[in-house]
Each structure stands twice: as C-alpha cells, then as structure tokens.
Specification:
With 301 residues, the chain is an alpha/beta fold. The chain folds into three domains: 5-88, Orthogonal Bundle (Arc Repressor Mutant, subunit A); 93-162 and 268-294, Periplasmic binding protein-like II (D-Maltodextrin-Binding Protein, domain 2); 166-266, D-Maltodextrin-Binding Protein, domain 2, CATH 3.40.190.290. Helix content is 44%, strand content 24%. The protein has ten helices and twelve strands. The strands form three sheets. Strands 3, 4, 5, 6, 7, 10, 11 and 12 form an eight-stranded mixed beta sheet that branches. The chain has a two-stranded antiparallel sheet with strand order 1-2. Strands 8-9 form a two-stranded parallel sheet.
Length: 301
Amino acid sequence: MNVTHKNIVAFVTIAELGSFAEASERLFISQPALSTAIKNMEESIGGKLFSRSTRRVSLTPEGKEFLPVAKRLLNDWETALSDVTSLFKLQRGVLNIAAMPSFADGILATNLANYHNNNPNIQIRLLDEVMERVIQHVQDGRTELGFVFRPNDLTGLIFTPLIEDSFMLVVNKEHKYASYDRVEIEQLNSIPMVFMNHGSSIRTWIDNNLESLNIKPDMIAETSQFSTLGQMVANGMGVTIAPKICRQLMLSKGCVCVNFSSNEFTKEIGVLMKKRGKLSSAAQLFLKELSKNLRVSTTFS
C-alpha cells in the first residue's frame, strides 16, 4: 500500500472544506494534482473516500470512518517530529550512564547536578555498580556511558581517560601506621589485609602490582564493595589499598588514609562507550561539560 503523508493531508483538508477547489488553494497545489493524489490513494486502499457532485464533495461511509483515523495519524506524525526535534535541541531526552560507586558518589554527582541545572528537561538515569557490571551495561547497550578504571579488555569498546587516580593505604585509627604521613609499599609484607573480590579488575591490578614488588600480604577477607571494605578496616580486620576517590568514604567509616611514599600506584579513570554507534545529543553534551570541568581536551561523538 502506497499512501503518503501528503495523501492523508490532502484527504483531511478536502474532508474539512468539502471542496477540491478550496483544498487546492489551501495546500498550494493545482486542483488536477489534488484530484490525482486522492484517486491514487483510493486505488491504493481499494475504495472510494469521497462522493463527488457538481456542487459539493462529501465523504462516503468508509471515508467518514477513516477521517478520525487520518487525523490521529497526522497528529502522531507531528508529535513524533516534535519529539525528535526536541531531542536534538535537548528540550527532552534521557541520559543513561553507569559508574563505579566511588566515582558516582563524588566527581560524577557534582557534574550531574550542574548538568541538570543547565538541562532541566533531560532525565538522568544512573546505575552505580561495581566496575565489571558497568562494563557489561555498556556492552549490552543498557547505558551509553560507563565510568570506570581503565579495563584490561577493551574488545568492542572505547576508553577515554579523564583523570589519573593514585591509591592509598587505609587503616583503622588504632593501627600503627595511622600516625604516619607516608608508608613504603614494602611495609605491607605479611600484614593482614582485606581486599576487593578475587577476579575483580581492581583486585587483579593490585595483586599484579604487589606480586611485581614481591610483596605477599596476609589476605584475611574480601568483598565486592568499597563501602564494606572500609567497614572491615574500621573494625580492625586488616588494612587495605584503595583509590583516593574513596577517601571521603573511608574517612566516613572512621578510617585513616595514608599515602605511599614510593612506588605509588596510579590508574586512569575514564569513560567507556561502544566502539560502534553514535552517542545521543544528551550524552555528547554531558561529556562536553564534564571534560571542560575536568580540563580534559578530547572530542566525543
């Protein structure tokens, strides 16, 4: 069936005016062209829509049934165009992102608040989950953007660094290192420690770094959340190594954060997106604002 938007507009206009001549004037097309358009439409749908007389044009019973449907189709068409135009103008839209809780709770939350103030009609959906699930959400297309430490495997993904974060030692207030300004990484040898779960990206990265320095800590417990990790440290189960973006979280648990004096661990935090695919206007604008606030020179599309 070959019925176009112009055909439906012509049909509704003639039905409302009851005249081909008046409709042709309103639509700025010749009367023969209008008649041809309606004839083609009637042939396409298999029946007459108008009864024509020398004075007046009236709708057939089928035409009367079709008129409200045609009006609804035109309204839906205009609504759809208005919606997509609003998306490009950022008058409407959704920003779907995922982030590690440690990043979401600090840098990201502040920048999302600024973004919302500048774009109040953009709905924000944030999933704050462990790094591995953030990566999965981007791969599955559930979110456009994911904020994580640089992953080891970037198959099908693009990682753009935003900041470089260093790691610190976290101890409870009674620990002997709590009064230190700095500690040597070698001082962790044989000390009871709590870690992120074995197999997580951060745990693997920390294990590899400790192994390269021939440091063998005494692993007491592991968990999947930095919040729980901090509580374990505060309760005296052991010390841990955590990124500095977790400093406020660890302090809120009553822990003490101590810098490393040498062989300092550093790792990039950035944004993850699919290698193939176009970012929405909402996502592009957020990355533009975030890059400006973090003073990062990069282009996203």
